């Protein structure tokens, strides 16, 4: 019972200890927080402009969870994180979260009773979008590195 669990030794759980693993974990956490904030709050799904942020958080949280699960199960996670698909996914996540968050922040001021909800969802969305942008920039840096074995001239 006194043994320490080393995540790097079980399957590919060592991916969770990498920078990409931390980013994926935070992206899932923020996406789930946005989704729960907009779904649980009374009548928040009734406003049309929150539907975009709600759908964005649901879709990107689901896809990021699938990516993270695949990276843990598979041993080729580092090869996928430098592909164009992964980079485009994160750039699209940044654009969608940024758009939905700005809409929630700007339009949310019109509602006195739910102003806190829209402020929280908007700020969480901006944070999630920033995480996706930084993750994309790290993937681009990995792709362009000369010592990357996947680099093709």
What's the structural domain tally? 1
pLDDT < 50 runs, ≥5 residues: none
Q: What is the helix fraction of residues, given as a range? A: 55-70%
Biggest sheet, in brief? none
Q: Kindly report how far apart the N and C termini lie.
A: 51 Å
Output the radius of gyration: 18 Å
Q: H/E series, N to C?
A: HHHHH
Judged by helices, strands and strand pairing, the structural class is mainly alpha
Strand content: under 5%
- Give the integer mean of the pLDDT values: 80
Oligomer: single chain
Query: What's the overall geometry?
Result: elongated
Helix segment count? 5
Strand elements, count: 0
Can you offer a commentary on this structure?
- The chain is mainly alpha-helical and 153 residues long.
- Helix content is 69%, strand content 0%.
- The chain has one domain.
- The longest helix has 30 residues, at 115-144.
- The protein is elongated, with a radius of gyration of 18 Å.
- Keywords: Membrane, Transmembrane, Transmembrane helix.
- InterPro entries: Marvel (IPR008253).
- It is found in: Membrane.
Q: Topology, please?
A:
Layout: H1 19-40, H2 48-73, H3 77-80, H4 84-107, H5 115-144
Helix pairs in contact: 1-2, 1-5, 2-4, 4-5
């Amino acid at each position: 019972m006194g043994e320490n669990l080393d995540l790097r030794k079980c399957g590919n759980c060592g991916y969770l200890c990498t920078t990409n693993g931390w980013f994926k974990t935070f992206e899932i956490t923020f996406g789930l927080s946005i989704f729960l904030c907009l779904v649980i709050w009374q009548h928040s799904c009734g406003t049309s402009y929150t539907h975009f942020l709600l759908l964005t958080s649901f879709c990107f949280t689901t896809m990021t969870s699938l990516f993270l699960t695949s990276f843990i199960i598979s041993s080729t996670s580092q090869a996928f994180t430098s592909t164009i698909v992964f980079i485009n996914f994160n750039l699209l996540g940044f654009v969608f979260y940024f758009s939905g968050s700005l809409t929630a922040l700007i339009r949310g001021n019109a509602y006195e009773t739910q102003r806190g909800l829209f402020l929280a969802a908007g700020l969480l969305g901006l944070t999630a979008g920033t995480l996706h942008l930084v993750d994309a920039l790290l993937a681009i840096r990995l792709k362009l590195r000369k010592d990357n074995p996947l680099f093709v001239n």
